[in-house]
Amino acid sequence: MFEDEYSPEYIDNLDGGFIEHNEGEEDTYDLDCFPKEQQQIAVAKTKFILNIRKKLKDKGWTKENVMPIVDALYDASLPFKSPSLSSVQRWHRSLSQNQDNPAVLVSKHHRKGNRNSKVGDDKYFDLALERFLKATRPTAMSAYRYYESQMLIDIENGKYEGRPISQTAFYKRLAKLSSYEVTAKRYGKYKADMKFGYKGGPLKLERPLQRVEIDHTPLDLILLDDETLHPLGRPYLTILKDSLSKCIIGYHLSFQAPSYASASKAICHAMLPKKIKGPDGKPSWECHGKIETLVADNGAEFWSESLEHFCLEAGINIQYNKVGQPWGKGLVERNFLTIQQLILDDLEGKTFSNNVERADYNSVKNAKFKFSRFVKAFETWVAEVFNWEPNQKKTHVPMLEWRKAVNKFPPNELTPPEHEHIKLISGILKKPALQNNGIIFEHLRYDSKELADYRKQFCRDKKIKVTTKVNIDDLGFAYVYLFEYERYLKVPCVDFQYASGLSYEKHKVHITYIRKYNKIHGKSGLDQARAKQHIAEILEDIDASAKESSSKQKKVGGMKKAARVKGVDSVSVQTRREKDSNPVKQPSSLADLEMIWQEDT
Fold it and tell me: Looking at the chain, which residues constitute the CATH 3.30.420.10 domain(s)?
């Protein structure tokens, strides 16, 4: 349908480079590239020669014909000295050969002089330069002192005749070195490329969701548990941004470090319709649809086999940004800075990048915002503020650009059956062996009559590996792909009472607890149910103690782990909101956004 696909090499293939000059032409022919004073002198000389031509008419440029005219035309107010006959003839010849371009009469003082070193101190300068270009980044003064001391020692020993150049002259020689080479040696190639390297231009985009950037960042804010009001720590934010419209199209917020789970949930949120409504009761976050190309960095979570298979099944082309070139997805990188500055800058519980900035401020003690309240406020800010905020030049409004692009090239939307399918294929990918008692995933066994019938027909005496997807938020079922039937089979966990509604993160904690408990007490046979019950009691104790001592400062490390076990993330807030028979009232105006932040926790 579309033939004009663009690749990262698009800009590199453009015909650029130095402008070639015809033989005999001056190297520089643009008058505007010279200083103002030199421009005025060149223009005055040109007018002077043109007036001489008018007076001479068809006469020759001899001394008898030219000098009387020069004496008559020259005025002391002109910005050049009275020219000699040879100067006038030279100016006339240069203008004639270059179509009377005044730039050729600009004084070429920068070409004068001997450019080769007359000092003969290259040996000593090279030694000092080698010292100056070290990664330890010594100062120019240190390099000069080394240069001077080495030369003075050789002079005293009769190995060199001469004297060191001045410190100013030494600095000038350093200034003539390649800026890129100096930065690369002293700060590294990455820093040099960032400062001087070719960044290229934006690719030509014309469709919404044609190119979407994704990335993670920890938020500089301490959030509270909804029930205990205990500080949970800093959450991780994953966002996706459409490169054409510059709208934020999806996100995920949790206390789990960046992983495939957070990436897949953010992608699903971006592709599915949002239920955020504006003051008029209509959906205010309109961005959704199938993503064409997803641009990610080289983090481990983006190189997982699960993400690769998920993107393949969802029809998403995943593109990895080049290492050390963050400008390749600069939109989402700049977005994180915008979020930190515009949303979190004046909120209580804000953290700082270092101790100097934080001073005496206690982020944990001053934290005030519940996790669910922040999720609601963040979604409202994205839908009704950020996506409608014009750029500094007032030439681009993200949501208006989105609507314009959608009217021209509407993105493919997911059908209702695909809504469930996208959640299925976003699960964790495993390839366990199909055994005579089902499949095993993280110590959980899954089996059903349908799977047993499949084994009877196709497995015989051999074990085969089957592609299996497991929902990250609910281990109650595993989805086994049966190649012969070309579809997934929904297989329940044998211990369904334990696994139903259990998150993958919480299950891993249970397993870890069992291993440690058995190691300490030397007992075996403890199952996940006992671990689950015991951990629930521990969490209840933590919650109870937190309520009793909410005014006392606590370390957030343990509570952050508890938040991960309890599954505190933006998806759980959205799910709870949908199940609530009395949903939280949406703000009636943008002014109500401030009330959300200040609402009593």
Answer: 212-421
Residue pair 186/211 in contact (Cβ under 8 Å)? The answer is no
Contacts of 600 (CB under 8 A, 6+ apart): none
**C-alpha span between 213 and 243 (Å, rounded):** 7
CATH of the domain spanning 122-196: 1.10.10
What's the 3-state SS for 523-549? CCCCCHHHHHHHHHHHHHHHHHHHHHC
The token pair at 586 is 């949406």
| Contacting residues for 526 by C-beta, under 8 A, at least 6 apart | 514, 517, 518
How far, in Å, CA of 67 to CA of 57, rounded?
15
Does residue 593 sit in helix, strand or coil?
helix
Specify the length of the chain in residues: 601
Residue 529 token pair:
């149910």
Distance, in Å, from the CA atom of 248 to the CA atom of 460, rounded to the nearest integer, reads 51
Phi first, then psi, for residue 488 (nearest 5°) are -85, 145
pLDDT at 8: 44
CB 387 within 8 A of CB 248: yes
**Spatial CA neighbour of 292 closest among 6, 583, 595, 574:** 6
Band of residue 310 on the pLDDT scale cut at 50, 70, 90 = confident
Rg for the chain, CA atoms, rounded: 36
Q: What is the pTM of this model?
A: 0.61
CATH number for the domain formed by residue range(s) 212-421: 3.30.420.10
Q: What is the pLDDT of residues 381-431, one digit of tens each?
A: 889 888 998 988 889 999 999 999 999 999 998 888 888 888 888 888 888
Give 106's DSSP letter.
Answer: S
